[in-house]
Every structure is written in C-alpha cells, then in structure tokens.
Amino acid sequence: MRASVPLTAVATAALLLATVTGAAPTAAAADRNPDPGAAHLVRVTHGDPYADCTIGAISPDSVVYPGSEVEPYLSVDPHDPKRVVTVYQQDRWNDGGARGLVASWSTDGRTFHRSTLPFSMCAPGGADFERATDPWVSTGPDGTVYAGGEGVDFVKSTRTGLLAATSHDGGRTWQNTTTTHVDEEPFFNDKPSLTADPVRKGTAYQVWNRLDNDPPGPGSLDGPGYISLTRDGGRTWSRARKFVDTAAVPDTQTIGHLIVVDRRTGTLYDFFDRITYSADLGTVVEARYQVVTSTDAGETWSAPVTVARDTSVPEVDPNDPAKPLRAASTLPSPAVDPRTGTLYMAYEGADFTGGRFDSIQLVRSTDGGRTWGAPELISPGNVPAFSPSIAVDERGTVALTYYDLRFLEPGDTTTLPTAYQLATLPHGDVRRRTERRISRVFDWLEAPFAGGYFLGDYQGLVADGKGVRAVLTETHSDARLNRTDVYTAALRTD
C-alpha cells in the first residue's frame, strides 16, 4: 500500500492501499511470445483462488476486480535460478488492498504452480485480516523463501499488521506465519518490504513506515521507519523498533523502505523517500531519497544520507490529465554491484522534462553510499515512463525495466497503449545503453481503478546469474472478469 499527501495519514493511506491475495495449489503455465521483438514471456497467474470469498467490502461503494492480479514481485534461488517464486495481489479492491496475496512457484522457470499466502481471511488458514496488500518475497542463501505482506481491516476499525511466512520447498507450502507488528488507528503501517540476507543464513529483514496522525492537525504527522528481523529462518521475529526517525521535522514521513546487501562486506543499505508536508498537510514542501547503513546486520544504523531529490510529478494520462495513473513515484529501486559494491538507485523524476512528466532516472555511489552522483536519464526523454526496477548481474551489467507511453498517439483519450522496456548498461555506462521491448503493447486503462489506474506500485526484477529475471503486469481488453495477469521472463543482458 502507499500513502501520498495525507488529509489524515490514516484516511489517505487507506485510500491508496495496494494488496494481493493467496491461492489454491496447482496451475499450469502458458508460454506466449506476444509481439515480434518482445521477450518470451510466461504467464504465471491462472484462475482465481478467492473468487468465492465474500469478505472485505467496506461500503456499498466498494468494488472488487475479480480475476485481477497486480503488483508482482519475485525471487530466485541463488543456487538455481530456475527455482522462481513470484507473489502478487489477487482480486484488487478499488478502496484499498485485495482479497489476498498469492504465490506462484516454479522449478524450471517456465511452468508455474500456485499456492496461497496465509495473509488474509480469504486464504485457507489465513491470518485474521479482511484484506491484504504489499506482497514481497526473497530467498536466502540456504534456499529458505521468505514472503512478506500486510493485513488490513477497514470495517470495524482501521487495523494494519505486518506479516511474514517461510517456505522450505520453493514456495509450494508456507509455514511460520507471523504477525511481526500490528496497530490500530491512529497508527497506520505502510509499504513494507522484506529482504533475505544473502550472506547470513537464516537472517531476513522486514522494513516499513509507521504513520501517526494523532491528533489530526498541523504538526501532528509522523512517519518513521520501522524494522523487524529474524535470525532463525523465520521461526521468530524481533519486536518492531524504530530505526529511521522523523520527529525532528514536523509533518514528515518516510516511505518505500527497501534493504539491499553488499555480499562482499555484509553491509546493509536501507533506501527510502523522506517527505515533509505543509502545516495543513496539503502540499509537499520537500521530498528527498535517503539511505541509512548498517554494518552489524541491522542492530545499529547510520544517520541518513541524501541520495537524490524526489522530483516526481503526478502520474496521469498525458492526453487526459483528469485520469490519474498509479505507479512508482516516491518509491526507490536500489541495487548493488556484487563485484565492486557500487550502489545504484532508480526512480521516477522530472529533472529532464522541466517538470512536465516523469522519466526513469539513475544515480550511483562508488564510496559505500557516502556521496552520490548527479541523476542520469535512462528512459527516452520525450515520453512519460514509470515504475523502474533495477538489478545488477554477476558481470556488473546494470539492467532496468520500466513501462512507458511511446505508443500513445496525440489526441487518443480512449486508450493508453503501454509497454515494458528493458535497458541494459554494461558496467553501469549510460553511454553504452541499449533498450528493447519485453512485453506486448497493452491498454493501461483496462487496469483496476484504485486511486488511479493500477498495475501496482512496483514490478519486480532480480539478478539471475549472467542475466536478469523480470515479473510484470499486463492488462486484457474487454475482459472484465480477468483485467490483468502477471508474466515473467528470463532476460539476457549481453
């Protein structure tokens, strides 16, 4: 889920909540090669395990989009890149979250089977939450798969809980379902992610921001970063604690916390966006991406260092700005070069368009995050681009995926032709950048509407040996009971 400029922190966060649902076992996969020049994609979503669930309506205006799968993420086994686990929201609601979260797993990278994540009441044996959101997945060096998400209640009161589960059979089954933290309003937990430590077996980190707007009014918003961690393979998780403070500046929150780990040194880097609002919480005064560092496996953290200004602008249909889109503004996508330790962060920004629309921008640090270079433009400069994901392969090639609107014709206000692109930068050299399309062209306006036409606040990309593997969402035209599906592909970076 994601909160933007809050009228109250809880109300706005509830409106912009994003969720995914779990599913019943077994589903076959269908290969497809959508367009000449596009990647060979495999569909990972089949059927709707929560189709019969009647839980979760907030009001008569609540609309659920059955058969819709959005906001995917993925992980691969570090010892076998064909062992893939994807997670996603199932049956998105218009007013926050989804019926539940689902995982799809594979042992060959091509045929995917389904398992339900136990994070909502729609899932068999699921946690005691009406809806779920923010799916995340990460695989440790011993093959343990960690899944994270958030459970949400809206009907009786606003209650949010951070959830985690583990799998020791590659995503077929899930154990150790744990509520790592739970709050009722005025607190609202937002946008968690989960990272397995690649060098410390049994260790994983869940991070998020915790909004507090009590009592509502000027000077009352606070949104620090919180962390919970496991040292025993997910059997137990530590008590949640604050690790990024925002109290010094009134009406400030963090969002988009995401940890990456330097495998050479074991150093942890947590990236996030820090946003300060006006006293009436109506406008953004300042927004900047920052990073904090831990050299002791998450026990202590450095002071924040600014990575880049957040210059993103509202995401809209450029031919009809009254149609809001929902993508990855305010959410950083970081990565670390496994050979050199160079840090990268991709994000949406408007530095290269004079504030007219967002492009995909990249910044880097070669000194462990102490200093950062100027932004570099990655996507074509003449069209809006959204939702960057970044990974660095074993040879140091930087890969970025994003979707853009290059196929949109002037004056077209009935469709929004969209496609995913893959950009590769050998050794991070923007001058050697190449790009190719990896999806078919699809209509974004067929997506569920949830605070904007919604494909997800993020899509996934991970290093896959000498290449990368992507997971992404596409829409279907005239398919009201199956608006979206999730696809994956292993992509070469040479």
Automatic annotation (TrEMBL):
Q: Where is this region: Disordered?
A: 310-333
Which top EC class applies here?
hydrolase
Q: Which CDD domains match?
A: Sialidase_non-viral
Q: Give the signal peptide as a residue range, or say none if absent.
A: 1-23
UniProt cross-references to Gene3D superfamilies, sorted A to Z: 2.120.10.10
Name the reaction it catalyses: Hydrolysis of alpha-(2->3)-, alpha-(2->6)-, alpha-(2->8)- glycosidic linkages of terminal sialic acid residues in oligosaccharides, glycoproteins, glycolipids, colominic acid and synthetic substrates
| Hydrolase is among the record's keywords | no
Keywords of the record, alphabetical order, are:
Signal
Under Enzyme Commission nomenclature, its number is 3.2.1.18
- Family per record: Belongs to the glycosyl hydrolase 33 family.
What PANTHER family would the database entry show? EXO-ALPHA-SIALIDASE, SIALIDASE
- Protein name stated in the entry: exo-alpha-sialidase
